[in-house]
Design goal:
The complex is a heterodimer of chains A (about 450) and B (about 400). Chain A has about 450 residues and is of the alpha/beta class. Chain A has helices spanning about 1-25, 65-70, 70-85, 105-115, 130-140, 175-185, 200-215, 230-240, 250-265, 280-290, 320-330, 340-360, 365-375; strands spanning about 45-50, 50-60, 90-100, 120-125, 145, 195-200, 220-225, 245-250, 270-275, 305-310, 400-405, 410, 415-420, 425-430. Chain B has a two-stranded antiparallel ribbon. Chain B is built from 19 helices and two strands. Chain B is mainly alpha-helical and about 400 residues long. The chains are: A alpha/beta (about 450), B mainly alpha (about 400).
Chain lengths: ~450, ~400
């Protein structure tokens, strides 16, 4: 009996602790006051009189790091350039980059850290379709502006009602598919077309676009899973289907892999690679690396291959935009040369500075989104075709041009062609975006 | 004085009461902690909880039954995908408790199948077979793209926080508990429930059988233990814990995607177990804490020290590797195991200090001299203590020593 009694001591101690904890609490609930979302008022998170804190997730380590890890260094250089000139509305931009290793679980972790711990004002340029899908709903439910996702999936912009805070930036994969589809239908009507697709939104969206024009010409479709480096069966499948033009919607590693495998199989179709997978310098390096030196890869390895362009890249050193990027990189860059990935980072950093300017001095999260929906379509920038941003669509750049790679540089085969998702017509761009030059200061006006 | 002795005796005699008390204290502690910390810390704590739950299951399998599994990450995937399929949108009406139970049951079923195969394998062959599991399972999601979402996975939509939970949170803290605190609380309750069951199980007849099989198969079989049954049951229990952990991962990350369940996750779990101390639930929790907080702390330190983002990001795996090497070199029993052996030695000294002053002194001196070689000396004696999942009381029930 005494034993039982003694045993109750620790338990009652635990109970007492609970009760004390409870007593420390506030007890009942007062009248419900609807607490507004975090974005309202002049006290937006991450914004002070003289600073704005923004963040992004990128693969800085791991398999996806080569190439992609350079994007934030470009963006950082441009933000430093703007900061050196006094920032935006007197506020310096603080840019925090976290590594997610291209793993959605890590993306979720670092995004929590950025939003809840670092209290960023906005996410800018978070990279990857599977990775960003893991956090897009969280960002929207927290009301965090989620600008310029570094991925061409449709889901960042085609449903504004569900994801009011998310904006795409690069041309989505569907319009890229439409543009190349129409080009092939008009210029190579006898080609037997094979498709080589990444097995996610990237391949699916692109296929949807291509099929609008090439339904009858497609003889074979092969898909690969990102991470599986054996593409032998897919390339052999395309060869067996008799395709003499292959449209590849894949990442740079798979451009190198398909080139090597088709070399081995003696398969020589005309290749087209999506903009994402066609950086000549990176693919050249990957070719030497994957073949362990058996194929001497250089930036000329992709000569004769078709691809698309939507911003000027380092292969056009005379373009006024590229000259600006070179200047920015020389003054504020880190080690290494200017690359197309850094140009990409600088280009969306430029667009974000435009968005901040449009939002005015009283910066709020909702204000930024509204101002950008209003001003987005008329903004000039490095992009070859205008943006599509409105209150109904958050999709980015509206068009691109088809180029053939020659000596590592793209030679235009078509003018800039603009369109939209669905059955919107493809038209020649008349906005003059492709021929504009940046303002003298290098900072949007 | 007698009162104290009585409490102490009761403490070591009644396993159930002791574990229950620890569990209640755990709930109280986590309530207090979650009230005090920021949303971001709650998210980290949730992560620690699901890693800890899975590592707890793995430590029982490896530490108590001697089976190695490099495929526990894949088992977590079954729990996570079950959760994701049951919580597709806000209209999903399955209560969270049932969702977690379903995740546990599905993983349990998978675990029993794998366990049957695993029971026939030993050492490197078992490791190989479970690695195959870790590599193959993400492929299932890619193959059944329509239902399982392929590479991008399926989003998990957590139903709105139930009103009673909001009320309880409001009653305690005066503010509505945020979503992340609610998730962290659920994850910790799952961890505490899992650990409570695992601790009881390992101190029961079942646990003794597992240890007997681990230590000496022939002896165990002579004693009438069915080897296969003991192995399979250990694997099933361990898989069930992994299933619960997977469910928590899914609601915490809000996504079930193959990229989350790579071989790396399985190895991470094993690392948590090794860091913390094989066979110890406290160790599993410590290991999980280390793996959760270390990368962020190191990356922040790197950034503060003026490294650029890429260098700071590369620092985390480096330090993680170094810590691993150091723990294996300097504390081969793991953190919890080493702490416990230190504690036991201390108690040993206390006990011997009584009769003559001189003996006490010699002990102290000897210990002082041998601290440098602690590990080498203590390993053979303490193997069993380190494998008991809780408190020093474990000594009395463990078998007599490692088999040759």
């Amino acid at each position: 009996m005494k034993r039982m009694l003694t045993m109750t001591v620790p338990i009652s101690a635990a109970l007492a602790t609970t009760l004390v904890l409870a007593a420390c609490g506030a007890g009942g609930r007062d009248d419900d006051d609807d607490n507004g979302d975090g974005g309202g008022g002049a006290t937006a998170p991450g914004v002070t009189e003289d600073s704005i804190k923004i963040g992004a997730h990128f693969p800085l380590t791991g398999v996806a790091a080569p190439g992609y890890s350079e994007i934030p260094t470009g963006a950082q250089a441009y933000f430093d350039y703007v900061n050196a000139a006094g920032g935006v509305h007197g506020r310096q931009i603080e840019y925090i980059v976290k590594d997610d290793g291209y793993n959605p679980t890590n993306t979720s972790r670092v995004t929590n850290e950025l939003v809840l711990q670092d209290e960023i004002f906005a996410m800018v340029g978070g990279l990857g379709t599977p990775t960003h899908s893991a956090v897009v709903d969280f960002l929207n439910s927290e009301g965090v502006p989620d600008f310029f996702v570094s991925s061409g999936s449709l889901q960042w912009g085609d449903n504004v009602e569900n994801r009011p805070y998310t904006f795409g930036w690069q041309p989505d994969y569907e319009i890229e598919g439409k543009v190349i589809g129409q080009y092939v239908a008009e210029n190579m009507p006898d080609a037997k077309v094979g498709l080589f697709l990444q097995d996610d939104d990237f391949g699916d969206d692109a296929e949807q676009g291509v099929r609008q024009y090439l339904e009858d010409q497609i003889v074979g479709v092969e898909r690969y899973t990102s991470g599986n480096t054996d593409v032998g069966p897919q390339v052999a499948g395309l060869q067996a289907s008799g395709a003499d033009l292959v449209l590849g919607f894949n990442t740079p590693s798979y451009t190198a892999l398909t080139q090597l495998v088709s070399l081995r199989l003696g398969y020589t179709p005309q290749w087209y690679y999506s903009n994402v997978g066609s950086d000549p310098t990176l693919v050249g390096g990957l070719l030497s690396q994957f073949s362990e030196g058996a194929v001497e890869g250089s930036q000329n390895s992709l000569d004769g291959i078709l691809t698309t362009e939507y911003i000027p890249g380092v292969d056009a050193p005379d373009d006024p935009w590229v000259q600006l990027w070179q200047k920015v990189w020389d003054t504020h860059g880190t080690q290494g040369d200017l690359t197309n990935y850094r140009v990409y980072g600088m280009s969306h950093a430029y667009a974000f500075v435009q968005a901040l300017q449009a939002a005015g001095e009283d910066l709020t999260r909702d204000g930024l989104v509204e101002a950008f929906e209003e001003a987005g379509q008329d903004l000039d920038g490095p992009q070859l075709a205008p943006y599509r941003y409105t209150a109904e669509s958050h999709l980015g750049i509206s068009g691109l041009r088809i180029v053939e790679i020659n000596n590592g540089a793209g030679e235009p085969l078509t003018p800039v062609l603009t369109t939209d998702i669905g059955d919107a017509e493809i038209t020649e761009d008349d906005s003059g975006q492709a021929d504009d030059a940046p303002p003298e200061s290098g900072i949007p006006e | 004085m007698t009162r104290l002795t009585l409490v102490r005796r009761l403490w070591s005699d009644s396993t159930l009461l002791r574990h229950l008390l620890v569990a209640v204290l755990g709930v109280v502690a986590i309530t207090a902690v979650l009230t005090a910390v920021s949303d971001f810390r709650s998210v980290q704590l949730a992560e620690m909880a699901y890693l800890g739950t899975a590592a707890g299951g793995l430590t029982v399998l490896t530490g108590l039954n001697g089976q190695i599994s490099l495929g526990h990450g894949a088992l977590m995937a079954f729990g996570a995908y079950t959760t994701a399929l049951l919580l597709p949108d806000l209209e999903a009406s399955t209560p969270l408790v049932l969702v977690v139970l379903a995740a546990v049951l599905v993983t349990l079923a998978v675990g029993s199948v794998v366990g049957v195969a695993a029971a026939r394998l030993h050492g490197p062959y078992l490791a190989g077979a479970t690695v195959a599991l870790a590599v193959a399972v993400p492929g299932i999601a890619l193959f059944y793209k329509q239902t399982l979402g392929g590479e991008q996975g399926i989003p998990v939509v957590l139903p709105p926080t139930p009103q009673w939970a909001l009320d309880a949170g409001y009653y305690l803290t005066g503010t509505d508990p945020s979503r992340s605190k609610f998730v962290a609380y659920v994850a910790w309750l799952t961890l505490i429930a899992t650990f409570f069951l695992l601790a009881n199980l390992s101190r029961s007849r079942v646990g003794r059988r597992w240890r007997a099989v681990r230590d000496d198969e022939v002896a165990a079989e002579l004693a009438g233990i069915n080897l296969g049954r003991a192995r399979v049951s250990a694997f099933m229990v361990s898989a069930a814990a992994a299933g619960a952990a997977g469910a928590m991962l899914a609601i915490s990350v809000r996504l079930a995607a193959p990229g989350s369940f790579t071989l790396t996750l399985s190895l991470t779990l094993l690392a948590a177990v090794v860091l913390g101390g094989l066979g110890s639930l406290t160790g599993a929790l410590l290991g999980a804490a280390l793996l959760t907080f270390l990368p962020q702390v190191v990356t922040d330190l790197g950034t503060d020290a003026g490294l650029d983002n890429i260098q700071a990001a590369e620092l985390a795996p480096l330090v993680y590797g170094l810590v691993m090497v150091l723990v294996v070199l300097l504390a081969p029993l793991g953190i919890a195991g080493t702490l416990r052996s230190l504690m036991l030695r201390h108690r040993h000294q206390d006990r011997h200090r009584g009769p003559t002053q001189t003996t006490g002194q010699t002990t102290v001196q000897t210990t002082g001299q041998t601290t440098g070689q602690t590990t080498g000396q203590t390993t053979p004696q303490t193997t069993d203590q380190a494998t008991g999942p809780d408190t020093p009381g474990a000594i009395s029930t463990t078998s007599k020593g490692t088999s040759p």
